[in-house]
Amino acid sequence: NAGVTQTPKFRVLKTGQSMTLLCAQDMNHEYMYWYRQDPGMGLRLIHYSVGEGTTAKGEVPDGYNVSRLKKQNFLLGLESAAPSQTSVYFCASSYSTPSVTEAFFGQGTRLTVV
Amino acid sequence: AQSVTQPDIHITVSEGASLELRCNYSYGATPYLFWYVQSPGQGLQLLLKYFSGDTLVQGIKGFEAEFKRSQSSFNLRKPSVHWSDAAEYFCAVGMTTDSWGKLQFGAGTQVVVTP
Measured between CA atoms, how close is B80 to chain A, in angstroms? Predict the structure, then answer.
């Protein structure tokens, strides 16, 4: 049982390049989330989705876009990467709201923008 | 605005000693409260959660946490630490008024276990 899988695990981008981070879950969860983790700041919510075809902005959405075309996948896009987007990105999913049911996290994607 | 504070950035504890990690929150009502653990190179794993009821909550791996409404705190404890408990620990808050279940995380406490 894979749980939440993030692809890729590591990436180095040049400023201005674009990329897409993929999150896939095999638990039939409705809710999916993208967080970024920075030293001393914990995890901050970028975007989230409460179902296929629906997305919403979180605390730090600027510079990112997301799509949820299939229930099991949640994509995070960087259109024009900036050094400030150097971070570790975590995807999470839950059956219902994480306040009620457990959120499961992927292992993270370490992104460096040079 | 809501906030979650973990006052200790880094804690060093000897193996076999007790551990207590502090978490304070600022919120207009009693929120949902969580503790997560992140082992090196891994994602976050839920240790325990509090929604209502008994203010002493038992979790996995021998951890427990106590909710104190008067102090707006949800401190995590373990009586005897094992080397495998070396990790980063995050307190998180879910707002009861948020139907989409977003969580707000503290900055984390790094725990180092010495022999």
Answer: 26
Contacts 24+ apart (CB under 8 A), B65-74: B65/B33, B65/B35, B67/B33, B69/B30, B71/B24, B72/B24, B72/B25, B72/B26, B72/B27, B73/B22, B73/B23, B73/B24, B73/B25, B74/B23, B74/B25, B74/B33, B74/B35, B74/B50
User: If you ran DSSP here, which 8-state letter would residue A16 be given?
Assistant: T
pLDDT attached to residue A100: 63
Smallest Cβ–Cβ distance between A43 and the set B45, B90, B96 belongs to B90
What is the per-residue pLDDT across B60-105, written as a single tens digit (0 to 9) for each?
Answer: 999 999 999 999 999 999 999 999 999 999 999 887 777 667 888 9
C-alpha to C-alpha distances, B80 to A114, B3, B17, B35, B73, nearest whole angstrom: 43, 30, 5, 18, 22
